[in-house]
Structure of Nicotinamide-nucleotide amidohydrolase family protein:
Amino acid sequence: MMKTEKGYARLYKVYGRSEGEVRDRLRPILKQGGAAVVYTRRRGKEIQVLAETGEQDEERAKAVSRPVAAEIKRALGDWYYSTRENETMEEAVVRLLIKYNLTVSTAESCTGGMIAAKLVNVAGVSEVFREGYVTYSNKAKRKLLKVGKTTLKEYGAVSRQTAKEMAEGGMALADSDICVAVTGIAGPDGGTKEKPVGLVFIGCCVRGETEVEKWNFRGSRQEIREQSALAALDLLRRMILKNFR
């Protein structure tokens, strides 16, 4: 529970979704009355869902808000990454990796090691982090991650196929349970009509099962890289929940 001006609130933090998408999932809950008022707010690049009660006693507030908390969790599913006010995305990911005794590696192009850097900011990550690869050039992608020469020639370095092979190659090379990979165009140059600045593909391989997401980010070069790294960590988190929860 977090202390608010009115009393206490349960908090659910969502990354990578618009406030409209979150509210759509919560629509029946937002309309209902009760001892806890549910609302959303934007904080930077994330959406926060709060179930707030005017109770001044924390234990009483927990009891009053427990029923609606269960509804919020069911509605959001794996969309929320934390219920802890000060927990970062990377802290939530490392917590899950440790909980399920999983090892992770990273394979990065446009993020240039940012994902690995975020992970190693977290105390205790040495238990789960195996290796990080920065494969910025096509040659490095081929040499280290075994991305196919044909793949790069036919689809390009920034493609769903390349992200998939980067994740699979990184997992095999590091002998980790999971590998998350990112390839994209951070700008400000290098974009085309077919592949604009901000186009990013994120792949995550979990013991042979790979998913790839396509994103179109906006902002400066640094902002696109930051958004890419956070989206990669969020995909990693959701893949852990999907396969091990």
Helices lie at 19-31, 58-76, 89-99, 114-120, 138-145, 149-155, 160-174, 221-244. The CA atoms of residues 17 and 39 lie 15 Å apart.
